[in-house]
Amino acid sequence: MTKIVAIPRPSFPGLLVTAAAAGACGGEDVRPVEILDITPPTLEISMNVVGAATALPMEVRFHLSEPVVGSFTEEDVVVAGGVLDRFEALGPVDFVGEVRPALNTAGLAVVSVPAEAFQDRAGNPNARGASSYRPFDTRGALLSDFETASPRLSGFDGVAAWLGEDPVAPENQVLTVSRPGGSGTTAHSGVVLELCSAAPFSADATHITLRSRSPRAGVPMLLKVERSDRPEVFVEVEARTGRADTWETLVFDLADGQTERSPRLDPVQSYDRLVLFPAFQEEPGVYGVENYRFDDIVLLGASSFEACSGRE
């Protein structure tokens, strides 16, 4: 006598009890039959929410119900109200991304993946789409975009600074800071940006965002704001790059200086100078010549600012 016994695919561990039943048939002829996987994969999207509205880059996490073996990619993700700056796999069913909200506006950033965007190992497409959203507010004073509003620039301690093409979008003008890493360069080399008026800090405007493209991840970037007529009046905060050769948004919270020697921010002061130190306190010569690129310096929460017009 022949018995037909269902043998599940490895992707169905919950059906192993059916396969185990095959061993209870004694000496009878047992013929395994594979169960076909007809269950579509599903996706959950979550966004890291901090407060009701924010301008910080938003972390987005994607969780799949089962492995899809490379068929879920960055091209499957649709973003409204922002740009997907990063997308990478954390494992076979988990992915993470980062969304940069649109500049100088408020609204919702919506991340979605449509139906039939990816398939599981058996070739089943996702039958339903998924989405998540988060409010944002990037309204603020544009201190510089290095095009229509560009401060006077000067590199120091061996660093050269100039305005040039964005390596990704040549029509976009950005600041390039070249750190030679040889004789004449120090661990405190950088570039001075002379604003045409004082940055409008206030109790509600203490965060500066800066677009950055670094040759390495984990590079310390120190931002210092000071009075040009009284350099002893300053605040400095450090941030670190997260990726290499990719545009990302660095956030500097100047409400309380982070370095040991930094005073606290005093909104009454006329801070009209920015000093940027790429690879701060890293000894020169370790990595050779490195070019750092910067764009769009914004003081969040500020209303108006008299920026320098044109390219200095």
Descriptive overview:
The chain contains one helix and 20 strands. It has one helix spanning 16-20, and strands spanning 2-7, 29-34, 43-47, 58-64, 78-80, 82-89, 94-101, 106-113, 130-137, 140-144, 152-156, 160-165, 173-179, 190-194, 207-213, 220-226, 234-240, 247-253, 273-278, 290-300. The strands form five sheets. Strands 10, 12, 13, 15, 18 and 20 form a six-stranded antiparallel β-sheet that branches. A five-stranded antiparallel β-sheet has the order 11-14-19-16-17, with no helix packed on it. Strand 12 (160-165) and strand 13 (173-179) form a beta hairpin. The radius of gyration is 27 Å and the shape is elongated. The termini are far apart. Residues 5-22 have low confidence and may be disordered.
